[in-house]
Amino acid sequence: MSGGLELSGLHVGYPGRPVLAGVELPAWPAGALVGLLGPNASGKSTLLKALAGLLPYQGTAAFAGDDLAALPRHRRSAQVGYLPQTPPQATGLLVYEVALSVFRVAAPTLPRGEVERRIGEVFDLLDLNGVALSRVDTLSGGKRQLLGLALVLARRTPLMLLDEPTSALDLRWQIEALHAIRDTLRGRGAVALVAMHDLNLALRFCDGVAVLGEGRVLAAGPAATTVTPELLRRAYGVDARVERCSQGHPIVVANAAATGATWQRADAC
Questions:
Q1: Which of 164, 126, 172, 182 is nearest to 269 (CA)?
Q2: Average pLDDT of the chain, as a whole number
Q3: Type and span of the H or E element at 103
Q4: Confidence (pTM)
Q5: Conformation bin of residue 5: beta by default, left when phi > 0, alpha when psi is -120 to 50
Q6: What span, in angstroms and rounded, lies between the C-alpha atoms of 23 and 140?
Q7: CB-based burial of residue 136 (10 Å sphere; 0-12 exposed, 13-18 middle, 19+ buried)?
C-alpha cells in the first residue's frame, strides 16, 4: 500500500453548526496506530463519522493515494472499517449470526469458508468463542464492545476508524484489545485512527496522536513528544506533568484543574 491516511483543509459539522475547521493531519504510514485525543465534545466522533462517509465534509481526506469522498460505495466499504461509539445493538440473534450478517453486507463476494476462518481468528483473539452461540442481548456491555471490534478486525480493511473501542472494557481487556489492534495493523500494513480518552493508554500503544480542541487540531505528531504539559493545559484545562514509568513509557499525571484555563466545546457528539 502506498501512502497512508492524510487530511488536508477538512471542514466538518452539522447544518448550521460547524464543528471542525481546517483539519490537517500528516500522512501516517502503513502499520500506524494514531490516537485521536481531545476533551469531551471536541469533535473526535464527528471526524470519524465524516471519514467513514456518514457526514459530509469539505476538504481532502486521502488514503493510500485515493480521495475517500470520490470512491464508489463498494470500494470505500472495502477500504474503511468503522466502529461507532455504541456497541452492537442488543438483539435476539446469536453472536455468530451477527458476525456472518456483517460479512454478507460488507463483503458479499467473500467465500463462506474464508468468512468463517476470519471470524474464528478474531473470536480466538478476543476470547469470544465462549459466547459465539449466545444471544447478543445476553452479553455484557464489554463483551458487546469486543464483538464490535472483532467485526471490524475480521473485515481486514486497510483503514480502521475506531471510536473509543476500550471505553466499556476492564483494565485487562483494554490492554488486550489495543494489543490486538496494533498487532493487526502491523501484520497487515493497515492504519487505524482511534478516538481515546485514556491518555496513558494512548501514550503506551499509539505511534502518533492528533489532539483536537478549539474546533481544530491543536497538535499532531509522535505520541511520546506531542503530549506536553502545555498542550494538556490548553486542550483539557488541567495542570499536569508527563513522566516516565519504570519501563520507560511516558505517563500523564494530572494534578488539578488549571486556574484560569479556557477551552471551547466544539460539538456534542
A1: 164
A2: 93
A3: helix 95-106
A4: 0.93
A5: beta
A6: 36
A7: buried
Of the CA atoms within 13 Å of residue 126, those in its CB half-sphere come to 31
Q: In this structure, what C-alpha cell is assigned to residue 116? A: 468463517
Strands 57-63, 5-14: pairing is: antiparallel
- Which residues share a beta bridge with 253? 241
Nearest 5°: CA angle at 146, between 144 and 147? 60
Strand partners, 252: 242
pLDDT value, residue 4: 86
Q: What is the mean pLDDT of residues 42-57?
A: 97
The grid coordinates of residue 175 equal 490492554
**Homologous superfamily of 5-257 in CATH?**
P-loop containing nucleotide triphosphate hydrolases (3.40.50.300)
Q: Is the pLDDT of residue 218 over 90?
A: yes
Structure confidence at residue 269 as a pLDDT band (50, 70, 90)? very low
What single-letter DSSP state applies at residue 149? H
Question: Quick check: 101 pLDDT over 80?
Answer: yes
